């Protein structure tokens, strides 16, 4: 009989990598399987924003904890992901946006996010790069960004140091229940594990199907673009009331423009094509907020996938009816909250009481329209 | 330039312009787009408007003839436009004098030419060091000499062409420094002799250079370019038959300009953008789209021709362009199969007759892996992001196994050139450790195809007109 690992994690993004890391540090013998290199899908190509002002209200307590984790990544991850902690501003340019912003900021504040509504003039003091056109802004001191493309490099080193058996470029074709364990059919042969975590981002849906669970996951195809390196034009993370802009300048000078404008693509093919009108629309929004950006040139645009459940809340917890099997993913603003939520799942698997509740998928398996508690 | 047509051709060099002309002759409505103010591509570049032209130069003769044919045709030429986005449909977006313009057609021909390859050495980023192809732009388009005392170095036929161009324009060539030796040239000679006119031209260059007593250092490479803030000295080093240094640097030349090139790399960005199947073919310059005999890629409606689809030189590019023009006419339903095959047959034959010359010429310019392997750890590979070789080796040690991962680990290729300058060499460095170029792959194709200014792209707009999508859930 071949070696049996205590835990097998399928999917090497920020969720899978974090579960694997904390489970291994908790004493488990862990194997991680990733079809490509670590953190090269959503976890490596997202905008890196660590903001409360685009986070779902129900996730604010988690995101606050996760923000603290990102800010201290050097301590627990041990490797640099280029995290910058700074102020964040969510702008309203029209009365309708001001109303939306005030309402949303209020809800997020109730959930614990320290967001204040400030005047346009005050916003310009906080961010001198702003145009004078904002009526009001949501100001949050808990904001910032990471350098998403460094995520894989950082986690890879940390996982190896933690003794995780790392299988990159190792696609999994299926999982079967077998004598109280799971048999994972990989391109490198069948691997056996006692417990299993499915952490495949938008691929959670086909992964759950291996175990007979049908959970529809919507795939969002988010467009992003980046400027060449330019002289400093901003010092905060800037968004707008409805969440369709994220803008920040990295220490090396490039400005990343995101916000979730949709590109063409799907789960099978990834982000296939960027739509020029939407790139231009997103850029107009960015330049409307930070006028000095007009003088820059676009160096590159790309697309990253984002997973969304029916209620747009996470799928994180034990699988109903299948002992020792778990799912972890589909967290809205998943990069921001990922390390904390995935660590909670690791604690659950290690039989420790998680500090905050998980998000089991039982609620999503009820027939459509039967009502959810989320 | 909004609107519809039957065929869009991107790139008005020998390949693209001929494809456009042939397709137009068969009744297609053709839009031909190029970034330059006029057709001709790199090889038949026209002098910048307003500058005197030497009508007797061969590239001017061929280029002027092509420009005249285009002028007399009903091809819709849209020059001075920088294509930045190509999406399915096909829709091409370009920045022109009036901002962003889009045009659509069911068929697209990519004829985007090649980029130059410089295998890095210490000091290659000093002002005063430029590529051989850049030197031809200065000489042909701007009628400007690269410097007062010029060293011309690297490999392949461009060496003699650039050196002769400088001499003809009244400049001084301190030396030609050729990685190849007389033996390699002699080996290529029989194939080169298959095109007597071009061989004679090459001999003409050689004679012109000999009459000026320009020293030629065969089997030498550049050990370093040195100077305070700009090029002052070039240090030469003997190389072996694989292009790797094989002794201590022996010669130092005083020079204020070094024109250096180690061949060309196909600019296959559009076929990569569409995820067409590609093959690694060192003789053709690197990664090239897999084509049928007529220029069709694996993506329906997308054709690729000229040096951007694999290095063969100008004459095969012209013929390949004509063949692709016929294929486009056939695919558009304007040319019956029999007529298409009949028209294509003699062109295919002609191109075959040029193959020996094209291969010999491309062979002299192919990447020399030993030359790349010999790059020192501190030498900058990615000049946009200042990534030295040591960081690429460190990325391999940290687990990078393909070029996209290498990019994430190091920022190599993330700058304004998006890896057009460094990509081939960076991939070769990684491939030497991983095992093969196929294993490390190529950088994912993404827009913009060239950097574009936000100001020009966004134009004037009203905030209320930005089509902002619905808010995300709270």
Q: Layout of helices and strands, plus pairs?
A:
The complex is a heterodimer of chains A (374) and B (474).
Chain A: E1 4-10, H1 14-25, E2 30-33, H2 42-45, H3 60-71, H4 73-76, E3 84-92, H5 95-110, E4 115-119, H6 120-126, E5 136-145, H7 151-161, E6 165-167, E7 172-178, E8 181-186, E9 189-198, H8 204-210, E10 218-227, E11 237-240, E12 246-249, E13 255-258, E14 264-266, E15 270-273, H9 276-289, E16 297-308, E17 315-318, E18 325-329, H10 334-349, H11 362-365
Parallel strand pairs in A: 1-2, 1-9, 2-6, 3-11, 9-18
Antiparallel strand pairs in A: 3-5, 4-5, 7-8, 8-9, 10-13, 10-16, 11-12, 12-13, 14-15, 17-18
Chain B: E1 7-10, H1 14-25, E2 30-34, H2 58-72, E3 76-79, E4 82-87, E5 91-96, E6 99-104, E7 107-110, E8 114-116, E9 129-131, H3 132-142, E10 149-154, H4 158-168, E11 172-178, H5 182-192, H6 196-211, E12 216-218, E13 220-226, E14 233-238, E15 251-254, E16 257-261, E17 264-266, H7 269-273, E18 278-281, E19 286-289, E20 302-304, H8 314-331, H9 337-365, H10 369-373, E21 380-382, E22 387-388, H11 389-397, H12 403-410, H13 423-434, H14 437-440, E23 452-453, H15 454-458
Parallel strand pairs in B: 1-2, 1-7, 2-3, 7-20, 9-16, 10-11, 10-16, 11-12
Antiparallel strand pairs in B: 4-5, 5-6, 8-17, 13-14, 14-15, 18-19, 21-22
Helix pairs in contact in B: 1-2, 1-8, 3-4, 4-6, 5-9, 8-9, 11-13
